[in-house]
Write a structure and sequence with these properties.
It comes from Dryobates pubescens. With about 190 residues, the protein is mainly alpha-helical. Helices cover about 75% and strands about 0% of the residues. The protein has 2 domains: about 70 residues, no CATH class; about 120 residues. The chain is flat, with a radius of gyration of 21 Å.
Length: about 190
């Protein structure tokens, strides 16, 4: 379990090291931020001196078609019946992901009777953080959320490893592990 637990941390560290060297997404810069020059710089950095003008023209056309489109907030999206199938799919995916974490709760020496409730708590926490993230992503940008998320997730994985190693020494250590696992799920859902 310790190798499986450390693998996402290694991948997060690799992404964290290389993320600053990549530009923002050109569609994000043009369509969300309205930064035409930044979009052209990002396209030039991604494609070099190749012909990226056709892609830029496509983005400009997409921007023109979206000009009259109203951007909805989270509550407006939740009230829109046309997105209910997609919302149900995402909810089922989030809830089914919680079944993957049952083994770590057993490893943390939690009582079998409270593990389903803990798993439900993690699912609700992830759902709330996904909704929160969707409302702040436009203001902060993807890079900030990814970079900050991976830094915090790496720290939390180190804390989880320490608390799982010390759980036989202190009776309260499994609860620390539980809190760190829930925080990890929340940070993962809000960032990466």
């Amino acid at each position: 379990w310790n190798l499986l637990l450390s693998f996402p941390g290694v991948m997060a560290l690799i992404q964290l090291l290389f993320l600053p060297f990549f530009p923002e997404s050109p569609p994000y810069l043009l369509l969300q931020k309205g930064d035409k020059d930044g979009c052209l710089r990002a396209m030039k950095q991604l494609w070099g001196e190749a012909n990226y003008h056709a892609e830029f023209d496509d983005l400009m056309k997409e921007k023109a078609t979206k000009k009259g489109t109203k951007i909805m907030n989270v509550l407006e999206v939740l009230r829109e019946p046309s997105v209910y199938p997609q919302l149900i799919t995402v909810l089922l995916l989030l809830l089914s992901l919680q079944l993957c974490g049952l083994k770590i709760f057993q490893t943390a020496n939690l009582q079998e009777s409270i593990i389903p409730y803990v798993s439900l708590g993690v699912a609700v926490s992830e759902l709330i953080s996904v909704i929160f993230c969707s409302s702040i992503i436009e203001r902060l940008g993807r890079k900030v959320l990814l970079r900050g998320g991976y830094l915090v997730m790496g720290s939390l994985l180190a804390g989880i490893t320490i608390t799982l190693s010390l759980q036989d020494w202190y009776f309260w250590m499994p609860y620390c592990s539980l809190c760190l696992i829930i925080l990890f799920a929340v940070v993962f859902a809000a960032g990466p």
